[in-house]
Amino acid sequence: MLAPLPERMRPRSLDDFIGQSKLLGSQGALRRAIQHNLVPSMILWGPPGVGKTTLALLIAESTKRPFYPLSAISSGVKELREVLGRSSGLFSPIVFIDEIHRYNKSQQDALLAAVEKGQITLIGATTENPSFELNSALLSRCQVYILDTLSKDDLIRMLHQAAEKDEVLKKKQIQFESYDALLRLSGGDGRKLLNLFELVVNAHFSEETIIVTDESVTEVAQQNLARYDKSGEQHYDIASAFIKSMRGSDPNAALYWMARMIHAGEDPEFIARRMLILASEDIGNANPTAIIMANACLQAVKAIGFPESRIILSQVVIYLATSPKSNASYLAIDEALALAEKTAHLPVPLHLRNAPTKLMKEIGYGKNYQYSHNYEGNFAEQNFLPDELKGTQIYQPGQNPRENEIRKQLQKWWGEWYGY
Fold first, then answer.
1. Are residues 308 and 280 in the same domain?
2. Is residue 147 within 8 Å of 20, Cβ to Cβ?
3. Which residues span the domain enclosing 49?
4. Tell me: the pLDDT tens digits for 190-227?
5. Beta strand 94-98 with 67-71: parallel, antiparallel or unpaired?
């Protein structure tokens, strides 16, 4: 049986690997470690289809080490102990664990002991932020390498490499009229790109010359579009639809997309974390209770697990979707960060500085500072920014009842200073 195109095109050496030039270029830190056989235990963190599994295989082949692959979905402590019990040579064997974020605490603890003793060199692959998903002890003993999404040039190179070098495809005359549909539908996922490309070629395989057009790609994609797959395929598309439905105040659509994720076996904590981000980014001070609700939801999901947590998720999704919206805090911090980058050289005004020593007091530290609680309404009008930025407005309240009240208060305090 013919293997799928992504498997047939899996790189056989580091020089054939497409993408990740920062790590694997001639001066890349990971490439140098591989060349000198000084490979640390590591976590490969990146989106689907960027080559995490392939890279682990290449590391094992390049360093001539035994390679033991495990999946966190299907393996447990028993399978892990079987691997750890195998003898190793001069260099520790590589144990590759796909979706390592799905290992529970006892499984991670078993890995920790093996890594500490040098029994194994661990390579874990994850699409999730390891800071959230892995315990700190294990994470501190691993080097985290962040794999970037494949660029447009990387993906196009991958297509041409397949068309020219694959034993099956190179027998056909393949021409690319456009890449837009292939790139758009693959979403930066190299595996998805090659699968879709092979479907397009197979649909026209009887033709002498196969011309890849946006129309031919779209037609094939509509016929073969895979359903949500928590390990990759439509993972980010459906998560995006879920977030945008809540942002757009549509509880019906938000519940539907969440149900699609739950039906596919998505981790409920992944869903709850996205809701917590939205509560601040898209609701913020229009309804400060939203972030409290979202955080309580995340803690409850962790405490009671599935299936009961589906009810809590549903309640909070409806609450967030029907809440008033504001992205004012999101815009304000980005504005502040941009301003800070440009003006980090500006000194703190003397009246705002602490004066713990006599000398500091003598040169003016803290002089003329007005302690707000000594004034009516706990407010004293004074400049809190560097003098060069005096009057620079960063926060603009959103258009909603609560932030309209905030605007009125800011106008009372700072109307002449900041233009509220």
1. yes
2. yes
3. 19-146
4. 988 999 999 999 888 888 889 999 998 888 877 655 44
5. parallel
My answer on whether 61 and 158 are in the same domain is no
Q: Let me know: does 298 contact 276? Beta carbons within 8 Å.
A: yes
Same domain, 245 and 216: no
Last residue of a domain, one of 168, 199, 224: 224
Distant-in-sequence, close-in-space partners of 202: CB < 8 Å, separation ≥ 6 = none
Asked if the structure places residue 337 within a domain, the reply is no
Confidence of residue 87 (pLDDT cuts 50, 70, 90): low
Q: Is 42 strand, coil or helix?
A: strand
At 420, the pLDDT band (50, 70, 90 cuts) reads: confident
356-386: pLDDT as tens digits: 888 878 888 889 999 999 999 999 999 999 9
Q: Residue 144 is encoded by which pair of tokens?
A: 């985290």
Q: Establish if 249 belongs to a structural domain.
A: yes
The better pLDDT of the pair 2, 345 is held by 345
In a shared domain, residues 168 and 110: no
Is 342 domain-assigned?
no
Tell me, yes or no, whether 310 and 274 share the same domain: yes
200 with 117, same domain? no
Give the up-direction half-sphere exposure of residue 161: CA atoms within 13 A in the CB hemisphere: 18
Model pTM? Answer: 0.55
| Residues forming a β-bridge with 98 | 71, 125
* CB-CB neighbours of 402 under 10 Å: 16
Reported as a single tens digit per residue, the pLDDT across 300-329 is 998 887 788 899 999 999 999 999 999 999
- Residues 326, 332, 337: CA angle, nearest 5 degrees: 150
The answer to whether residue 339 scores a pLDDT higher than 50 is yes
User: What CATH code is carried by the domain that includes residue 135?
Assistant: 3.40.50.300
DSSP state of 371: -
The token duo for 25 is 């270029």
Give me 105's structure tokens: 């605490």
Q: 7 in a domain, yes or no?
A: no
Residue 188, pLDDT above cutoff 90: no
What SS3 state is found at 121? strand
Identify which of 247, 308, 238, 233 has the alpha carbon closest to the alpha carbon of residue 270: 238
Domains in the chain, number = 4
Q: Which residues of 100-131 are buried (b: 16+ CB within 10 A; e: fewer)?
A: bbbbeeebbebbbebbeeebbbbbbbbbbebe
Residue 207 and residue 272 share a domain:
no
Residues 30 and 114 placed together within one structural domain of the fold: yes
